[in-house]
Amino acid sequence: MLVLDLEKRIVYFENAGKVNTEEALSLAKKRAQELGIKNVILASTHGYTAQKALEVFGTDLRFTVVGTDRESFSKDLLRILEDKGISVRFSHEVEYTYPELMKNALRKLSEGVKVCMDICIVAAEERLVPEGKEVIAIAGTGPLGFEDGGGADTALVMVPWKSERFNKLPEKAKRRDVKEIICKPR
């Protein structure tokens, strides 16, 4: 049996929300580079986090944006992202499922952890990232409850799966979807 002796730093933000966006993106970029991961999946409701990702990632990483719905996302930014060849999908336009019990369990860790799982499933369903290959997933605490809106405060190393495969128990028992926590709010 192979035992890895890994010691990695996890950043815990004192507060959730937008204030952590640039730091979360920087930490995610650094970890992606360390692991040689090229695919990043990013949640962005209105476009703020996607805009910041353009600034932080540059052309170093390939990223996919998953928004909630098209109506709330910045139309100008959507055009810019698409012109740059960045895939944008909206979760309300993609059929996927995973158990409510699991969603609630993930929310206990943080809203961002739950959203990271959502966006990985959406990206896999849409074939924007390969199933079974490690990606960086970035999400956060949504805009509700924050005067200045939500933002990224969670980054994970994950393995995305389509929901049909994700929900099959024999396969689920053989794999681990969340590989590492890079950062999250306390």
Task: Provide the fold topology.
Layout: E1 11-13, H1 21-35, E2 39-43, H2 48-57, E3 62-67, H3 75-83, E4 88-90, H4 100-109, H5 111-125, E5 135-141, E6 151-158, H6 163-166, H7 169-174, E7 178-185
Parallel strand pairs: 1-7, 2-3, 2-5, 3-4
Antiparallel strand pairs: 5-6, 6-7
Helix pairs in contact: 1-2, 4-5
The N- to C-terminal Cα distance equals 34 Å
Structural class by helix and strand composition:
alpha/beta
Strand order of the largest sheet: 1-7-6-5-2-3-4
Say what oligomer this is. single chain
Overall body shape: globular
The ordered string of helix (H) and strand (E) elements is EHEHEHEHHEEHHE
Note the beta-strand portion: 15-25%
| Topology, number of strands | 7
Given as residue ranges, the uncertain stretches (5+ residues, pLDDT < 50) are none
Total tally of structural domains: 1
CATH H-tier superfamily: Pyruvate kinase, C-terminal domain
The first-level CATH class name: Alpha Beta
Q: Summarize the amount of helix as a percent range.
A: 25-40%
Mean pLDDT: 87
Largest sheet: 7 strands, mixed
Structure, described:
It is a single chain. By secondary structure, the protein is of the alpha/beta class. The chain has helices at residues 21-35, 48-57, 75-83, 100-109, 111-125, 163-166, 169-174; strands at 11-13, 39-43, 62-67, 88-90, 135-141, 151-158, 178-185. The longest helix is centred in the first third of the chain and has 15 residues, at 21-35. The radius of gyration is 15 Å and the shape is globular. The termini are far apart.
